[in-house]
Amino acid sequence: MKRVFLFLALCVIGASADDFRYEPDWDSIRSRYQVPDWFRDAKFGIFIHWGPYAVPAYMSEKYAPGMYDPGWNKGDMNAFRHHQETYGDPSEFGYKDFIPMFKAEKFDAAAWARLFKKAGARYVVPVAEHHDGFAMYASKHTRWNVKNMGPKKDTMRLLADAVRAEGMKFGASSHFALNRIYYKTTEPDWDTNDPQYADLYWYPRDKDSKPDQEFLDLWWKRTTDIIDSYQPDLLWFDYGLDKPGWESVHKKILAYYYNQGLEWNKGVVFQDKNMKYHCFPEDVIVLDIERGRMSEIYKYPWQTDTSVGKISWGYIENEEYKTADYLLDELIDIVSKNGCLLLNIGPKADGTIPPEAEAILLSMGEWMNINGEALFDTRPWKIYGEGPTKVNKGHHSEKHNEDAGYKDIRFTAKDDVLYATALGWPKNGKFLIKSLAKKNPHESRRIKSVQFVSGKNHLRWKQTRKGLELNVRGKKPCEAAYVFKVEFM
């Protein structure tokens, strides 16, 4: 009889452990949650800003509020003036009128997924809904969605299936929290003041007001709809969720999503910018830094989100594109500091990816085909690197960063192997890694071997008191950066 009771007790204990559920409490979440290894291994993902704002293709993805605001400028671009001249006054042609023009007639989810795979991406995160209020998925809670209007097909489902078929993880981003204060309502005859369109533009509100319960409930329904319908491996939130008035949903949505991950039996990732109010403890989420980086190794996994373009996140006709060289240097630096890079592209309204963006992705993929072992599945070393070029820390700091050079070395580690990646090529092919000098403070073991990963060039090396001296013969074998694989005795 005692054995029966003991068996039943053990069954109850086992069931309790298996039935664990997160409570909307930081301690409960902290007690169990860990960032899954798939994310820590992934290093590189693709972000996609795509929506009706791709139709005017002017100024930025924030054309929507700009067309109602005479004072909204992006450099020398003014969306209000452009709209008046091109489409007419907002009383005659509002943002809603772009939606029928957003047809995505050339959208090919499988082609997108193949491109992202070739680029080296391991996860893909399309914008599920931007501040504009138009749902880029088959929403159950708004008529303004991609299944009912515009393309009239669930582009999110098509992309999710295609991405997963290529072996990549699929995420979704929500920017909807700012919808309620996104549009100006200055003129009474604008459609932003028409009650029949309030379910797109929301009701007139003071910009500094807090969300009322009606909007909080709508946000909850729309967000959990995305979670339940598409089972995203990663859920990304824009900074609107950090504003005052959203405190009641922070613990609740985190617990809800993590519990769904338990139901799906997979590790999920929740990302937030924590830009001003730091609403989420950074040991229970993945911190995202917009157009910026960390200056040192961060103790928790983190992420940079930036774009191939310098001006906009969505497609615009006069975009200024970054180079693949610059973006690879950025990726390498981020990975050396325990981060991942989520790189954005903005497709056109017809569903095609701009050739400039495609060329950048393919170029990055070519580099990673050769050198990817120094990035994927690695972890930070004892120091992130060395060199004269310093990186500014924090959101929107990338514009202050200088281009790196061959003296800038970044380190990653995998098992007992150290990878040292130089972010440039010296004319004479000679590199010096000072951090690996004899009797350096980081590694007491002697170097056994050094391999040149980036090409078949002949390599000579020696470890001296100055550092690890490397002499690579011949021309540089690739662009951007050069990887050395170091093993110790």
Binned, the helix content reads 25-40%
Compute the number of strand runs.
18
**The biggest beta sheet, please?**
8 strands, parallel, barrel
Low-pLDDT stretches: 1-17
Query: In sequence order, what are the helices and strands, one letter per element?
Result: HHHEHEEHHEHEHHEHEEEHEHEEEEEEEE
Produce the secondary structure layout.
Blueprint: H1 2-18, H2 26-32, H3 37-42, E1 44-48, H4 63-66, E2 73-74, E3 77-78, H5 79-86, H6 109-118, E4 123-129, H7 155-165, E5 169-174, H8 198-201, H9 213-230, E6 234-237, H10 247-264, E7 269-272, E8 286-290, E9 302-307, H11 324-336, E10 339-345, H12 355-371, E11 385-386, E12 409-414, E13 417-422, E14 430-433, E15 447-452, E16 459-463, E17 468-472, E18 482-488
Parallel strand pairs: 1-4, 1-10, 4-5, 5-6, 6-7, 7-8, 8-9, 9-10
Antiparallel strand pairs: 2-3, 11-12, 12-13, 13-18, 14-17, 15-18, 16-17
Helix pairs in contact: 6-7, 6-12, 9-10, 11-12
Pfam families: Alpha_L_fucos (PF01120), Fucosidase_C (PF16757)
EC number: 3.2.1.51
Signal peptide: 1-17
